[in-house]
Amino acid sequence: MQTLIVDAALIPSEDAPLGEEKSSPIGHILSSLGTPHLKNWLQEAQEIKGTRLNEFALNTPLEEAIRMALDSHMETHPAANGLTGEAHALATQLLPKESEESPPQLGWALISLCHWHVNSGQVFMLDADPLEEQQSEALRAELSPFFAQVGISLFKHKPGVWLAQSELFHALPTASPLRVLGQEVEPWLVGNTFEFPNDKMGQSQSLKRLQSEVQMLLYHHPINQGRASALNSIWFSGTGTSSLSSEHLHWLSNPSVGSIQESQHSSPIWIDEHLREPYKRGDWRAWAQALESLDTQLFAQLKPGAFECLMLCGTQSTKVWLKSPSAGIKGFLSQLNARLFSRIHPSTIFHEN
Asked: Domain tally for the chain?
């Protein structure tokens, strides 16, 4: 079964309180939203139970959606909290030799450069300006000997984010930086999260010391000259093991249909993140424009049966639709669902549960 996951597609309830969407500024934007092709697809689909994160969840709705999509029967199995295995999956794809030869006691993680902002004695994680690849690689080369002193090997991934391997990351629960963005960092630090395992406290303390030392190194570092938001800390995430391979997941580099229809894979999972930037900024007009572009460039071009499952992700939850059969009683129910669906306000579709 082919699945399309669209991240940042559900508006948070605090931005458009449930029951007040139609009269809110966001409601006016949604009422004029032009997504006829997506609406047509949803009219022939049936919404099933999605997921909603609790306040202690370390994983993002996107990570939960990927886990859910991997289950062939669409049964909701909670992912191990803070053990998504994202770094391990990336290492398997990008660093096959190092991954295959890795001893079982070593773990993989993502290390992200980030911006911490102090306000009234509290420290918050805020979005940082993009980093050039050359700058990122120069900083990785400079810091690699420092990380090696505590048994961490650094590898290239993308600007501002490195792959890392060490015993310190083995089976260590960590929070996604997207889960922490805009919030106070203290409750989300490694070792501080809810029900953190006692036998991992030694690893977390070592990483906290490393985090503090890197902060001092970055404080007056030339990389921050001329930057509006300094890169003044690092974040560990993506820990855990994964059975994923490059054949399972496909990120859409542009919201077009060509790569989906040309796929030779029997049941791939396609992920689109083009709504994320305006979503993070809370720029709902730009978000609506990006959604309309997705409708025009992707949904308008899809052939029947291109994918059978659609997942829309927000900040706390995921909504899921399955394509309905068109024959017999199920076909009748599908048509009934379409008539009912046509009366639903768009704010209901794109609103978090």
From this structure: 2
